[in-house]
Amino acid sequence: MTLVESGTGSGALSHAALRTLAPHGHLHTFEFHQDRFKTARQEFENHNLSHLVTVHHKDVCGKNGNGGFDLPQATVDAVVLDLPEPWLAVAHAAFCIKAGGRIACYSPCVEQSQKTIAALEKCGFHSIKTMEYRLREHYVDHVTLEAPPKELREGRGANVESSSVEHDDPTKEQEAKEDIDEVDSSKEDSQVNHLKKDKKRKRQDTESNGDNEPSEKAKQLLCARPFPVMRGHSAFLTFATAGNAPQPDPKIQSKKVNGN
Question: 34, 129, 153, 165: which is deepest, by most CB within 10 A?
Answer without folding.
Answer: 165
